[in-house]
């Protein structure tokens, strides 16, 4: 790898492109001469240009879904020491601050959350599939078990 020289002209071009909101990869491509994305990021950081908002820099608190707010208002929550296998473990607040608690509602058997929080916490599969229950899996046969399973599943 050769060393890239940051001329005054290239630094000005970097500042302009960075200010225009271009990504580091786009800037590296525009500046050329084998310049990498990481070299652009490093130079921008050293120049103090890294002040633009990125998803990593800015943490946005997501509002609770309406049904979660209703459940919280009804229940009031419980502490960590009050949790059991039958209580909802959906957390509220920052664990490092006072006022942190858990939902405490009735948990669905086999799930750590109540119905409302399970709905919020788990994603449903976008793919719908069915399994042919009439497929006979030959456990004594040598071969690819995954291929047999693929044959049984239809999308």
What does the secondary structure layout of this molecule look like, with pairings?
Layout: H1 8-19, H2 24-31, H3 37-46, H4 66-75, E1 91-92, E2 101-102, H5 115-121, E3 130-131, H6 145-152, E4 153-154
Antiparallel strand pairs: 1-2, 3-4
Report what the structure shows.
With 155 residues, the protein is mainly alpha-helical. It has two domains: 1-59; 61-155, no CATH class. It contains six helices and four strands. The strands form two sheets. It has a two-stranded antiparallel ribbon. A two-stranded antiparallel sheet has the order 3-4. Strand 1 (91-92) and strand 2 form a beta hairpin. The two termini are 48 Å apart. The relative contact order is 0.08.
List keywords for this structure.
2 domains, mainly alpha, single chain, elongated, 155 residues, two-stranded antiparallel sheet
Query: What amount of the residues lies in strands?
Result: 5-15%
Structural class: mainly alpha
What form results from the Cα inertia axes? elongated
Instruction: Give the helix tally.
Output: 6
Radius of gyration: 27 Å
In short:
With 155 residues, the chain is mainly alpha-helical. It has two domains: 59 residues; 95 residues, no CATH class. The chain has six helices and four strands, in the order H-H-H-H-E-E-H-E-H-E.
